[in-house]
Specification:
- The structure is a single chain.
- This protein is of the alpha/beta class and 336 residues long.
- Helix content is 36%, strand content 22%.
- It contains 10 helices and 15 strands.
- Strands 12-11-7-10-9-8-15 form a 7-stranded mixed β-sheet, covered by helices on one side. The chain has a 6-stranded parallel β-sheet with strand order 3-2-1-4-5-6, with helices on both faces.
- Helix 6 crosses helix 7.
- The longest helix has 19 residues.
- The chain starts with a strand and ends in an 11-residue tail after the last strand.
- It binds nicotinamide-adenine-dinucleotide (NAD) and 1,2,3,4,5,6-hexahydroxy-cyclohexane (INS).
- The site of 1,2,3,4,5,6-hexahydroxy-cyclohexane has 6 residues, from helix 7.
- Keywords: NAD, Oxidoreductase.
- Its EC number is 1.1.1.18.
């Protein structure tokens, strides 16, 4: 059976996911497209999915009889309503991060999915599918002894002008928030943010870089440098210090060169290249589960816990240097 997918939001990532479904992955085809700007959907239709129907409204795409499953790739603030509509229609739904822009919104999705009694939502936290993070998790679980500290960095070369201080949490650090919960099998109890001096490449509404310190329920302290104007490349670093040893996230594969009296390897500059294989694997996983009428991978609960943690981190930005407590509500049995 070929899973018939509808894609809502045909901007950068909606286009890229349509390409991978149409040209890379097995078992699915894009039969419907929708975007707030219909020309954007029609452009993706022309380039990648000539057989797809273009809908002016995402709600109509979700309701369409020939759409088996939905990808929500629109602007973050629109995710909640579309995911709730997909759950109401009983259709599996892959939602790009964030699941919702508020913790309350993400909780409404959790409650709707729990009320329906089965998993229908996968959140696009693709790092869990990255071969390097999978190997790191295995090393932490079997080799390093119990983790004590994590040192991490999330560096982007530049960001657009409209990127402001809280986005370093909601848009960027949200990946670390999810992947460290998964890596350590632990939840957060507090967040603190400190700001070094702002770099010259930034602007008045963006304090960059910043350092976020998360503490987990088991007492692991995670420090992450978020530096989104680092200039030199797209660089994701992570080192876990355990009782018996240290495990480090591998660098992306790169040819090592001996040239002009120096030893060189290139550093990637675009997040799409850094995680290209993980996007493929996460969506193939979605196709497999959705073909069986359900969902797998990162859950609505993970999306909700990420939103709760984001809120605490933004509060921590606003009260620079102060630890903000994070409460962990009881996890519903559906996400055990
Ligand atoms: N997992 C990742 O690494 C990753 C990477 C990039 C983006 N994202 C997420 O994907 C989402 C989209 O990001 P993007 O970079 O493609 O942004 P984008 O701005 O390129 O595309 C967003 C699209 O959504 C459309 N849109 C806006 N409101 C809409 C509505 N109500 N209904 C339908 N369409 C609507 C816009 O017209 C636009 O075409 C964001 O939530 C972003 O955080 C995730
Ligand atoms: O939307 C992007 C994307 O999620 C990248 O993975 C992240 O590195 C960027 O900071 C963010 O702006």
């Amino acid at each position: 059976m070929t899973l018939k997918i509808g894609v809502i939001g045909t901007g950068m990532i909606g286009r890229d996911h349509t390409r991978r479904i149409q040209q890379v992955l097995a078992g699915a085809e894009v039969v419907a497209l929708s975007d707030y700007t219909p020309e954007a959907a029609r452009a993706v239709q022309a380039d990648l999915a000539p057989g797809a129907t273009v809908y002016e409204r995402g709600e109509d795409l979700i309701a369409a009889a020939d759409v088996d499953a939905v990808l929500v790739c629109s602007t973050g603030s629109t995710h909640e309503a579309y995911v709730l509509a997909a759950i109401a229609a009983g259709k599996p739904c892959f939602c790009e991060k964030p699941l919702a822009t508020t913790a309350e919104g993400a909780r409404r999705i959790v409650d709707a999915e729990v009320a329906g009694g089965k998993r229908l939502v996968q959140v696009g936290f693709m790092r869990r599918y990255d071969a390097g993070y999978v190997a790191l998790k295995q090393a932490v679980e079997t080799r390093t002894g119990a983790p004590i500290m994590v040192h991490a960095a999330h560096r982007n070369p530049t960001v657009p002008e409209q990127y402001v201080t809280p986005m370093a949490i909601h848009d960027t650090f949200v990946h670390e928030i999810d992947v460290f919960r998964w890596l350590l099998g632990d939840d957060y109890v507090s967040a603190r943010v400190t700001f070094p001096r702002t770099c010259a490449a930034s602007h008045a509404k963006l304090r960059d870089p910043q350092i976020v310190t998360l503490t987990t329920a088991r007492g692991v302290v995670i420090t992450t440098e978020i530096y989104v104007n680092c200039q030199y490349g797209y660089d994701i670093q992570c080192e876990v210090v355990g009782e018996e040893g240290i495990a480090r996230l591998p660098e992306p594969m790169a040819i090592q060169m001996r040239l002009n009296a120096s030893l060189q390897t290139a550093i990637l500059t675009d997040w799409k290249d850094r995680f290209v294989a993980s996007y493929d694997t996460e969506l193939q996983d979605f196709i497999k589960a959705a073909s069986a009428g359900t969902a797998t991978g990162p859950t609505s609960w993970d999306g909700y816990m990420a939103a709760v943690t984001c809120d605490a981190c933004v509060a921590a930005q606003e009260s620079e240097g102060t630890a903000i407590a994070i409460t962990n509500p009881e996890r519903p049995a559906l996400y055990a």
